[in-house]
Amino acid sequence: MKRTHIILLVLVAAAVTIIVSMFGDFSTYETFASAAKEPGKQYHVIGYLDNSKPFEYNPQVDPNHCTFYVKDKAGNTHKVIFNGAKPTDIEKSEQIVMTGSIQGDAFRCNKIQMKCPSKYQNDQVAIGNAS
Amino acid sequence: MDTQFIGEHLMPGKLGHFFAILSFVMALFSTFSYWRAAATENKDLNSSRSWQLLGRNGFILHVAGTAGVFITLFYIIQNHLFEYHYAWRHSDLSLSPKYLLSCFWEGQEGSFLLWSIWHCVLGLIVMFTAKGLESRTMTIISLVQVALASMLLGFYIGPDIKIGSDPFILLRTQMQDAPIFSQPNYLDFVKDGNGLNILLQNYWMVIHPPILFLGFAATLIPFAFTIAALWKGEYKQWLKPTLVWSLFTGGILGTGIMMGGAWAYESLTFGGYWAWDPVENASLVPWLLLVAALHTLVVFKATGRSFIITIVLMSLMYMFVWYSTFLTRTGVLGDTSVHAFTDEGKALYWHLLAVLGTLLVLAIGLMLVRWKGMPRVKTEEAVNSREFWMFIGSFILFLSAIQISITTSIPVWSPLAKAITSKDIAPPADVIKHYNDIQVWVAIIITLLTASILFFRFKTSDTKTVLKRLSITAGIAIVLSVIMGITQKIGDARYVVLLFGSNYTIVGMIYYAIKVQKMQLKKLGAASTHLGFGIFVLGVLFSSYNKEVMSINTMGIMMDFGKKNASENARESMENVLLYKDAPVVMGEYTATFKGDSTSPDDPRVFFKVAYERRDTVTNEVKESFVLYPDAFVNPKGQEENSMSPNPDSKHYLTRDIFTYVTKAYDPNHKPTDDTASYKTHKVHEGDTVFTNDGYLVYAGLNTNIAPGTYPQQAGDVAVAAVLLAYDVKGPVDTLFPIYYIRDQYAYQADDTLKKSNLYARISNIIPDEKAVELKIKQAAAEDDYIVMKALIFPYINLVWLGVIIMSLGFFLAMINRITKKEKTATV
Description:
The complex is a heterodimer. By secondary structure, chain A is α+β, with helices and mostly antiparallel strands. Chain A contains two helices and seven strands; from the N terminus they run H-E-H-E-E-E-E-E-E. The longest helix of chain A has 20 residues, at about 5-20. Chain A is elongated, with a radius of gyration of 22 Å. In chain B, helix 1 (about 10-40) runs antiparallel to helix 6 (about 135-150), helix 16 runs antiparallel to helix 19 (about 525-545) and helix 17 crosses helix 18 (about 495-515). In chain B, strands 6, 7, 8, 9, 10 and 11 form a six-stranded antiparallel sheet that branches. Chain B has 21 helices and 24 strands. By secondary structure, chain B is an alpha+beta fold.
């Protein structure tokens, strides 16, 4: 066996180890109910904003605190606390992906991704001076 | 066509569509002709020549067609022909001319077009320089152009299957169902387009996409040469052009990627130049593979070894270019990317997979056919040879690319994982940490290898000399690292090693340039590229390790964030700070004051003026003061009221950047009028205090001596002024004299105001029996003028940019050197 082959094998073995251990890093998509089974553990939850409940953000009290309600894919509505400024256009989003964990009665998240209906490519014809 | 529509310009669209078809047909024709030219080369030279000529003409006509599409589309956008969907969707009347080209890269069709245009330019150069490999290389280039040209066709096969997307489609065809298009004069209502994504309205976005696409397009050339060499079964002629083109591609693609980083840093608000976003990874992975292939190619040229890994890496590199396109364009990434493009439907999905499949079959097929005759060297490399270590370095780069791909591709393979493990796998909760934790090791190994390898020679080296030079390098690097590590307070063991690694590379390359290359500019390519890499890594290390959030909020609520310690929790939850107008807030060693906003008529943005002051802690002297103008698009077109899209502003120092952006602001267009605040009545005796929003007033009694001109006086008035001493937190500010006067038996008041605090004072009544007055105080809520802001410090970020520049220069130096160097091949 060539020396290069041995080194290659070692490197590949190391790479496989790293890649396998990488899977521990990966998060999973959960619902509020399944995330609540392990409070404090970071999960991804997909849902949409429940507009029937109030969205609270008062920067004059705390610019890093939003409270709102999200309905997850299973249809359960849960209180969500986001530590940060209110994400622009969150009311318009059709889906939000939150990264965070259940803590007490709320899902506390530090990252929000929104899917907005054609956020930048608004497919609605702007009609001017229509009679 | 039942309805005759008024005011449409149909000619450009028809012309454009004709050009698109011409471009597609000619690419096909050129592919076929070049293929015939290559196939008949050994049998019938004359016939081969004629096919080659046909292929050339075909390619030139293809270039003309593609250019025609480009110019027509540009004409449509420039003339605001909103009857065309593309112009309507991606531009508007207010768009400034410098962003007209940016409309191309906002849309799917436009970016494919740009990619295709660069292939045309590069293809023409290859056509005239590839010599013996022309027919084969050009077959591959033309074939890829067939794939790209088909993206612009918009042909239907049956009712459901659509090939490509026509950029010249009319608005009324695109949206047939909208009732407005049944009116012949519908254009009278479509006055303006939707406009260009505001994020793209940044000067980096004028320059970054064309460079990045040039880099992306250039990856085709080394790949085409590699396939051509395999096809021909001849591996000598292929070396030089592939090396030159790989250097060109490495330089351009690298520059393009980091220009994207510069754009992200300056106009996106994720607070940095790199976020391991799938779109960024999509261009980084081919670059890493290309750099790996480039190194093994150099090894092959010098020693005849590493041939197989070179062609595997080259092919893989180009597969990843198309795979990246697939990832970022088809919407398959879905939720995981901040700026993944919109879903363009199933058609594109299969279209791209078909292209990827074709290229894969082509590359693997050829490799299998040529497997036996591939150049191999039976003996083993020596451990003290350059090629041995270069091979390992390239393999590390390859592994790094694979790791990035696996994580980026989670949305692609997670359905499979779900079927097996019934777990719905999501990207890591902290993506950046995930990549950093793994890639830091790659960076460590690469920096350590980089400096060492260049001191070795190919085949075998004088171990003594090498060790001597390496110990000198390591010695200096250790001293530098200790100094830097202490001054920059770098504690984490991994980063200490990385610090040493980058210093080792920097020192090593400077030493190598002086000692071995004797500072001959032509030969400095390798030293410069690797020096740039070392500086870049150092810059990344400093700017991210010691990135500091200045705007730690000291008045918010403390939250548990699952972080390891309290200070991290605090940091996470309080990175935004609230600034009321004119109320100074301490941030780090600075005091920041929000001074107000400003707009200008020819710019849709609102600029927020934030003044910074740094004072000496002892003497309270102002040491430094500057103003930053983070800005934002407030209420951008097509978005909701009260929404905003902020752009950061930074103060640049040689050693660090202060980076700020506004995360939230009151709406400057809907400022509350002064009347929203109402007067409050306070009964005061002499010496009493009235508290205000930002200080207090002390009533110091009445005064009948009224300075002339303070109110419109008339003869016979009986007037008295209340003396109000105004204080803020720092001390006395001003004295107010609201006046109460009796004219013709009626009582009147004249308010006095404290402009700075929006304070209005009025005497509503005088009660002589109690020696008191009733004051009415109104303060238009100063809180209505506020911004929520984030401020970060990036130390030594200039090293990042400097490193990139030196690295790119190195690529081009090396390229020029390879072009001008006389051939002396050591190949088998």
